[in-house]
Amino acid sequence: MSMTDNLEKMLAGGRDDAMLRFGLGSAYFNEKRYEDAIRHLQACLKHDEGYTAAYKLLGKAFFQQDQLQEAIEVLEKGLPIATGGGDKQSQKEIEVFLNKARSRSNT
What we know:
The protein has helices at residues 3-12, 18-30, 34-47, 52-64, 68-84, 88-105. It has 107 residues and is mainly alpha-helical.
C-alpha cells in the first residue's frame, strides 16, 4: 500500500486535520499529482492558516501546473506568515519561488 493510500485511508476513517492534509498534499506532490496535492494543501490551510510549509508547497504545486497567478497569490499570502512566525527556511523558499513565479508570469 502506498503512502497516499495509507493517508487516504486515515482521512476516510474520520481523521481530518492540518497535518494529515499536509502529508497527503506532500505525498501527491512527490508523485507529481499536482491537482490532488493542491486540493489537500488548500484543505490544510483551511485547518491552519499559519501552516507556512503548506503555503510553500501549494505555491510550488500551482507553479508546476503553470497556474502562475494562483502561485503568486498563495506565496504572497504565506510570506508574511512565515516572516512573522520566524520560519526563516520557509520564508527563504517562498521568496525564491515567488520570484520564479513572477519572472515566468512576465514572459
